[in-house]
Amino acid sequence: MSPFLLGFTLVVAVLILVGLHRVWVGPTVFDRLIAVALLTVNGVIVLVLLGFLFERPAFYLDIALAYALLAFVLPIAISRYFERPEPREVRDHPSPGDAPGEEVDR
């Protein structure tokens, strides 16, 4: 094991913890989505570094590639979901401005 790779892996693991803090505390949904994207990138880096640390890079690189593809689609899908406008409120009766002459108790 290379001490440099081990140290770099630990630094990236600490960055993952910082990203988890942002996911937990993030003021808006979109800040949290950006933090999740950051976590996935750091996760891919950790997988690649672990592959080299354990001297099995082919195995870990395959897993990292699959994880990266999923990580690419996830924030896009979630942001598209939160980007939709809210559905309009359905009223059982017309408002006073809709039908002239009719008053509605509220």
Summarize the structure.
This protein has 106 residues and is an all-alpha fold. It contains three helices and no strands.
Give an overview in words:
This protein is mainly alpha-helical and about 110 residues long. The chain is built from 3 helices and no strands. The protein has helices at about 5-25, 30-55, 55-85. The protein is elongated, with a radius of gyration of 24 Å. The relative contact order is 0.11. The mean pLDDT is about 85.
Strand segment tally? 0
Per DSSP, the total helix count is 3
Alpha-carbon Rg, integer: 24 Å
H/E topology pattern: HHH
Share in β-strands: under 5%
Question: Which descriptors would you attach to this protein?
Answer:
106 residues, mainly alpha, 3 helices, 71% helix
